[in-house]
Amino acid sequence: MSRLRDAFLRSRREKRMALVCYLMAGVPSPRSFIDHAMACLEGGADVLEIGIPFSDPVADGPVIQEASVVALRNGVTPPKVLDMVRELRERTDRPLVLMGYYNPIFRMGEEEFVKACVRSGADGLIVPDLPLHEGGSLRLACERNGIDLVQLSTPLTPEARHRALMNATSGFLYLVTRTGVTGGGSADGNGLFRMVERSRKNDSELPLAAGFGISSPEHVKAARETGVDGVIVGSALVSLTLLETSPQEVMTAVRELAKACAPG
Amino acid sequence: MNTRFGEYGGQYVPEVLVPALQELERSYEQAKRDPAFTKELESYNRHYGGRETPLYFARRITEMCGGARIYLKREDLCHGGAHKFNNVMGQALLAKRMGKNRLIAETGAGQHGTATAMAAAVLGMSAEIYMGEKDMARQRMNVFRMRLMGAKVHEVRSGSRLLKDAINEAMRDWAGSVESTYYLLGTAAGAHPYPTMVRDFQSVIGREIRQQLLEAEGRLPDLLVACVGGGSNAIGTFHPFLEYEGVRMLGAEAAGDGLQTERHSATLSCGEVGVLQGCKSYLLQDEHGMVKEAHSLAPGLDYPGVGPEHSFLKDIGRAEYVGVTDSQALEAFVMLSRTEGIIPALESAHAVHAGMREAEKMDGDEIVVITVSGRGDKDLETVFDMGVIE
Fold first, then answer.
1. Spatial distance between the Cα atoms of B196 and B104, rounded to a whole number of angstroms
2. What is the pLDDT confidence band of residue B390, given thresholds at 50, 70 and 90?
3. Strands (DSSP E) along B229-319, which ranges?
4. Which of A193, B73, B126, B223 has the maximal Cβ count within 10 Å?
5. Which of A54, A78, A129 sits opposite B13 (nearest CB)?
6. How many interface pairs between A and B have CB atoms less than 8 angstroms apart?
7. Domains along the sequence of chain A with CATH
8. pTM: predicted TM-score of the whole model, two decimal places
9. Strand order of the sheet with strand B4-5?
10. pLDDT tens per residue across span B260-284
11. A112: how many CB neighbours lie within 10 A of its CB?
12. Secondary structure (3-state) at A19
């Protein structure tokens, strides 16, 4: 059983949603990033998702694009992200998931990249520009090395493909709440409800987490109504780090989000 | 449909776009088999686009080179001033057939954006064009043309503010609008089925060359030359000849300040295999897989990727690719204007240079066909600012 899946199942038992916090590695600086990441965990994040910067982040909106630019300007590379993961691993038992585009992974070599992730202590991997039918060999490399490769499903994904994604994913299934890129707008509550419903019919155990457009405690509460197991908050937190908000303030923001994950 | 050319190509896109690409593939396959679709496209090509374009025997530059007989395929005479029309008309008719009335497109030199604006106007559709801030500054006339024909032009300020970034922005738009919008990609790159579909629509260039040269000379060419940015006019020129082993093919890439410098766009000559904007192909990238900024005097060539079929043709040795520098292209731009009275696009001037260098080495009974992908009116401001003409 993976640490990632466990985290979702634990929060399910505790009758609350798991909170996944996304930060871009090395933003606003490599040092402050570690402090912000720890602030998220102390504020109540169940899972930390760490972005690997890429020159052409096509699935991301303006905030995470800007964060990529800042990170690259700060000299952040995939090996340096893995160093940051290693440092965080020494300080937390909670699951750490990497989110990065495919070309840097392909460039390093899939097997080598996955092995390096495992060595650094990462628990999972999300690759937003690698759809199911192109990701076969990376999936096998992840399976061989005991790390979760998380698949994404969207409101436009047809039924059969959604089932295939549920079968292929590990750790949890990432439900993209609406079409478009990360950040801005707001989650489509009805769309998410339907996605959760059709997922449960197929497999009631697999943890489901909703992301894209969830930025406030109100959005989190709305997501809870759909019965989803977790929420992923990215751009809203990345905005704070870009403004060089103090770790204390980031922790306060995360605490509010975590509170909204629990009933009452 | 095969999604790859050897190992190249594929469909590396966010999951949200997968259903749209599958729908596009199905619709294109159906359209291709429908004689009514082909007939309508041919009618637009002929009566609206001015096809077929001439295959012109360039006597003066042939004499200047003193080698092979040089023919110019005059895509600069196509409506809108470039080969971009061929692909745009095909895809716009397909979009209409699919019931998607909003077209979005990226543009570098502005030629693809202009062609998209034209097609949207004539078919009664709406068009929104993404264009890098730097390109908007150096191709102002095309921005005016697009706006005049009713298209909305979005200035892209992210990344290198060039063609690559305009594609990123168009893909982001599409991810949020995919149910109502058709993404009209301008080159034979991107995710499957674009490389195949764009090639098919551009292959009208090569088919006409074959027919016209058979009429003029009773034989096939010895060498085909075309410029390669994303590679659509080149693949359209080459593809109908792939089965004829005696026909050599040469792609001219932008060597910018020189292949030994960091400032060029010679993806096939200097790049390494990677994945960008939907497909696996050669790519200008650093050791960590970050995409490098491409440079060329010609805004339609400064793309750090290249169409996957060219990567395949390079690997199997079926086509060769050479770099042509900014100054060599500029020289060819002026030379062709003075010698033949034809002002080529700066992009096409790369092909003119490469073709003439090859022709010099060939015998007088051999034939070179150079595709002049577009006309150079759009580049006059750039060239005048450089002080080339007094």
1. 19
2. low
3. 248-256, 272-276, 278-283
4. B73
5. A129
6. 109
7. 3-148+215-261 (3.20.20.70)
8. 0.96
9. B4-5, B8-12, B278-283, B272-276
10. 999 999 999 999 999 999 999 999 9
11. 11
12. strand
